[in-house]
Amino acid sequence: MTAGWDQGAAEFARWARQLWQPLAVPLIEAARLSPGDRVFDACCGTGASALLAAQAVGADGQVDAVDASAGMIDQAKSAAVPEQLDFRVADALTWPGSGYHAVLCGFGIFFLGDQSAALASLADRLAPGGRIALSVWQGRPFDALTRLVLAACAAEGAGVGGPSAEAKNIGELNSPSKLTDFLRGAGLREVAVAAVRHRVPLTPDSAWSFVHSSLLRSALPADPAALARVKARLAGSLGGVELQADALIGSARR
Ligand SMILES: C[S@@+](CC[C@H](N)C(=O)[O-])C[C@H]1O[C@@H](n2cnc3c(N)ncnc32)[C@H](O)[C@@H]1O
Question: What is the pLDDT of residue 161?
């Protein structure tokens, strides 16, 4: 799984401005950070939320931002990193830090196996009264583009097998009521969930770039000629499809 993120890391970073940074803004607002806070950012990717958190906590604060993919962390470190922000390659579930004022997890909980166990592990890192903020996808993320990509791949005999464990996890948290129940079920209090509508117009080039930045890349055929045909087929079928990236931001207090 990490290999998939490593391969897509450079392309993922290219989506920061249009996708990951705008969606990190409400996540950071929900965390209600203060100057001097200590923050754990689990599954930090290329650092969209960690950088905003570092600004919010200031030079007296500390942000430990952890991702299992070395490629993602390399991308994160390629930008200017303030001193209070520490990017590390590590598994979010075994990271030893604790006593944080806030824990962030932006679109990462799906990749942590049993999501209830993962939430319990993340919440355990909080000091009493600390706040957790996580973002998940609302509805069926990237649905229209995914269908077109899979149709273009199917014509080459390529594609994905059955739904992945991650896709199943995404479906378990993709509505306000599911996310509310999830947070309450972990014994957290002051649970709040906000919906964020986020759409990005797609061109043939940007759609192809998004596929390569995401785990959808695993559906593509390896043969270069087949890959070129998939690209052409996708470009021809794209029409006015936009990237559907509506999110839910959940927050709660320990
Ligand atoms: C969709 S990206 C989210 C990136 C970032 N939070 C953002 O919003 O821009 C999911 C990230 O989870 C990371 N990841 C998956 N499993 C992980 C684990 N066990 N521990 C830490 N990171 C993990 C992947 O490497 C990937 O960078």
Answer: 72
Query: Cβ(8) to ligand 1 under 6 A?
Result: no
According to the model, what pLDDT value does residue 1 have?
A: 58
Q: What is the CA radius of gyration of the chain?
A: 18
Does residue 225 lie within any of the structural domains? no
Q: Work out whether strand 85-89 and strand 189-196 pair parallel, antiparallel, or are unpaired.
A: unpaired
Low-confidence ranges of the chain (pLDDT < 70): 1
48 lines ligand 1 (CB under 6 A): yes
Residue-level pLDDT at 164: 83
**Residue 201 pLDDT:** 95
The preferred substitution site among 6, 39, 67 for testing ligand 1, maximizing ligand atoms within 8 Å of CB, is 67
Residue 102 belongs to a domain: yes
CATH of the domain at 100: 3.40.50.150
Per-residue model confidence (pLDDT) at position 174: 98
Domain that holds residue 37: 2-140+165-199+242-253
Beta strands 247-253 and 242-244, pairing class? unpaired
> How many structural domains are present in the chain?
1
Angstrom distance (rounded) from CA 209 to CA 15: 9
In the reported structure, the alpha carbon of residue 196 is separated from the centroid of ligand 1 by a whole-number distance in angstroms of 20
Burial category of 150 from C-beta neighbours within 10 Å (exposed 0-12, middle 13-18, buried 19 and up): middle
In a domain, 134, yes or no: yes
For residue 45 and ligand 1, the question of a CB distance below 6 A is answered with yes
What is d(CA 121, CA 115) in angstroms, rounded to the nearest whole number? Answer: 10
**What pLDDT was estimated at residue 180?**
98
CA distance 221 to 217: 9
